[in-house]
Structures are given as C-alpha cells and as structure tokens.
Amino acid sequence: MSRFDLHGRVAMVTGCNKGLGQGLAVALAEAGADIVGVSRGPADETRSRIEAMGRRYASIEAELGRADPADIVEQALRHTGRLDILINNAGTIRRAPTLEFTEDDWDVVIDVNLKAAFFLAQAVARHLVERNAPGRIVNIASVLSFQGGILVPSYTASKSGILGLTRLLANEWAAYGITVNAIAPGYMATDNTQALRDDPARSTEILGRIPAGRWGTPEDLAGAAIFLCSDAAAYVNGHALAVDGGWLAR
C-alpha cells in the first residue's frame, strides 16, 4: 500500500463548497478518504465530484465563527463515526486602509480564520485522544503568515496567528500521535483575490513578482495536502509548507 494512500480515513474539510476548500476535499477523496464538508451553504458540486469517485461525502452547513465547533464535530461523528483528518481551510478577508479599518472587519476575520480554526482543531483532537488514534490536522495559512501585506490587517494577523498556533499545537499533541502542519498558499485565483485580479495594475504587479508567472489554482494544493495528511508525513510536525510559485523565495 502506498504511504500516500488515505483509504479508510475520514477527513473534515471546512469551506469546501468552492475554491481552495473544494480542491482540497477532492484531492483527499482522490487519495481514498471519505469527506465531511463544512460550508456555509450547499456544496452540491463538491459532493458530486467526490461521490463520482466512489467516496462518501457528508455535508454540514454551518457558519464558522458563529457555530459551535464541538457541535460540528458531533454532527460529523453521527454521519461517519470517526474523524482522522481535519483541514482548517475556511477563511474570509476584509480590505481597507488601516487608518479606516473597523472593529467589525477585525472581529469577523479573526473569528472565522483564527478562533474557529483553533476550537475546531481542539474538538477534533479531543475525539482522536478519546479514540487513542493518530490524526492529521492541516491549517491553511498564507504567505502573509510570513509577510505584512497591505490593506488587510485582520487577515495578516489571523494568518500569522495560524502559523504560531500550528507550531504550538504540534508541540502539545505530538505525544498523542497527532501531527499539526500548515499549508501557506501564495496568490491563488479564488474569491478572496478577485479584487486584486480585477485591478490591472495590482494584478500585473503581483504576477511580476511570482517566479512561476501565474496565479495559483486549487489543484496546486493537492500534492501538499495529500502528503501532510498521509503516513508519508508521520514525522513532519509544526511545519508550514509554502505553495506559492516561488513568491517567498523572490
């Protein structure tokens, strides 16, 4: 059996109705995992693609940042009986100059990107410890976990926090056989970057700094996700893997 084989495992992926989350869920299903998708609304396309592979797909509709993470995990366990993998992908962004940035724009981003990710990881880890089972948690960070960016103070703070949280949880949970790592996407073609891609000057500036010369796609994260969730990464812990077309190396 391949070290990258995920057959027999159940993965929870948040924000998987479209974009990066959909790509991540499909990738894990391709590697053999059954999927629990957590999204704000229906994820019919994701379900269809995963079930077409012969994998199971359970849908939970919840608004992260408001819903109780422990309840989300309980719902998942009622569907599948177990969880082995969590990918904390769901995220949001607000753009404004820092001198004009509002408390509401700060709170909503931190609540979804950082607070919900921590408490969902906590709930999944409690389940794994109770089962005395190993597990994989992958947090979706960002190149802004390493850089400041502009016009996105709460997003940068949340993604910097995700990197620190990944390292802390890796330290605490390694003894239980739970690895906690992060994937740091670069500039990806998703809803979160639509405003940038619609701005010709900003888009040209960004593309000019990416050695690969293009925006990333959800499919670009597939290999990193499968690796970090598999037995091949059993001794990889507390690491952030950049998938950025060379952005951070520039």
Question: How does this model look, in words?
Answer:
With 250 residues, this protein is an alpha/beta fold. It has one domain (10-249): Rossmann fold. The protein contains 8 helices and 7 strands; from the N terminus they run βαβαβαβαβαβαααβ. It has a 7-stranded parallel beta sheet, with helices on both faces. Strand 4 (85-88), helix 4 and strand 5 form a beta-alpha-beta unit. The N and C termini lie far apart (38 Å).
What count of domains describes the coordinates? 1
Report the uncertain regions.
none
CATH class: Alpha Beta
DSSP summary, beta strand count: 7
Helix content: 40-55%
Strand order of the largest sheet: 3-2-1-4-5-6-7
CATH architecture call: 3-Layer(aba) Sandwich
Round the Cα radius of gyration to an integer and report it: 17 Å
Distance between the termini: 38 Å
Shape: globular
- Characterize the biggest β-sheet: 7 strands, parallel
Total count of helical runs of at least 4 residues: 8
Structural class: alpha/beta
Q: Mean of the pLDDT scores?
A: 96
Strand content: 15-25%
Task: Determine the CATH topology.
Answer: Rossmann fold
